[in-house]
């Protein structure tokens, strides 16, 4: 038996190509790359290339009407999700399931104050509450008014694909009528150092499928589908 069809009725995204799905489509049509040196994030890798969202956390927070001290992952997630849900009335969002994937979660928040923690200064210990990978999903659901099933998937590079698969399964089994599925990740030192330790980072803009390819450039962003 063929599984019942699942409709995509909303899309939202933000990446190094810009904020919004129109920016993604324009970049793809024009062959425009978002890869470059860091311009916004204060990370000690001036020689490397990244897919950085060219908006500061303060800029992201201003766009969604939130606090700039949130994790960057959460800010990216909310911005993309709000675009995906533009056509969904608030009353229909209440029982919506939210499945949001991530790897680093609120790591960028912890990195800002980790050196103080190591030196015994716990004045900003409360920052740790935004660190868990699932915190961004809870915050996202609260911001969009969703009170249904909420979960976070963290399976490395397959995370968001698995989120969409789980969302489709919830619909097909009658466990949900409406699902927001996707994921978000922000660039942070932890991730970059991890890939550098594996010698997986290209020192130039990456060249997939080329004979002289030398690795990858890490990026950040968020994208969600309404199923």
Helix and strand element order: EEHHHHEHHEHEHE
Q: Give the C-alpha Rg.
A: 18 Å
Q: Which segments are poorly predicted (pLDDT under 50) over 5 or more consecutive residues?
A: none
Shape category? globular
The proportion of residues in beta strands is: 5-15%
* Mean residue pLDDT: 92
Tell how many strands the DSSP assignment holds: 6
Number of helices: 8
- Order of the strands making up the biggest sheet: 2-1-6-5-3-4
State the secondary-structure class: alpha/beta
Major sheet summary line:
6 strands, mixed
Measured as a percent range, the helix fraction is: 25-40%
How far apart the termini lie comes to: 21 Å
How would you characterize this protein structure?
The model has no long low-confidence stretch (mean pLDDT 92). A hairpin with a 2-residue loop joins strand 1 and strand 2. This protein is α/β, with parallel strands linked by helices. Helix 3 packs parallel to helix 6 (135-144). It has helices spanning 21-30, 57-64, 72-84, 90-93, 107-118, 135-144, 159-172, 189-197, and strands spanning 10-15, 18-19, 97-101, 150-153, 179-185, 221-226. The longest helix is centred in the last third of the chain and has 14 residues, at 159-172. Helix content is 35%, strand content 13%.
């Amino acid at each position: 038996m063929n599984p019942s069809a699942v409709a995509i009725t909303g899309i939202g995204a933000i990446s190094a190509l810009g904020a919004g799905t129109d920016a993604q489509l324009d970049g793809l049509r024009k062959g425009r790359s978002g890869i470059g040196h860091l311009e916004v994030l204060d990370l000690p890798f001036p020689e490397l290339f990244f897919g950085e969202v060219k908006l500061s956390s303060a800029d992201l927070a201003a766009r969604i009407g939130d606090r700039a001290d949130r994790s960057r992952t959460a800010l990216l997630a909310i911005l993309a999700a709000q675009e995906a849900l533009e056509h969904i009335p608030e009353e229909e969002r209440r029982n919506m399931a939210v499945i949001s994937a991530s790897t680093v979660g609120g790591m960028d928040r912890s990195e800002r104050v980790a050196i103080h923690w190591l030196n015994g200064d716990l004045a900003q210990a409360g920052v740790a509450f935004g660190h868990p990978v699932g915190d961004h999903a809870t915050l996202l659901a609260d911001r969009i008014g969703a009170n249904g099933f909420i979960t976070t998937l963290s399976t490395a590079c397959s995370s968001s694909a698995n989120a969409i698969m789980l969302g489709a399964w919830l619909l097909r089994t009658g466990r949900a009528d409406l699902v927001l599925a996707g994921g978000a990740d922000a660039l942070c030192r932890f991730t970059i150092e991890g890939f550098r330790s594996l010698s997986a980072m290209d020192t130039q803009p990456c060249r997939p499928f080329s004979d002289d390819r030398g690795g990858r450039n890490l990026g950040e962003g968020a994208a969600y589908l309404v199923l």
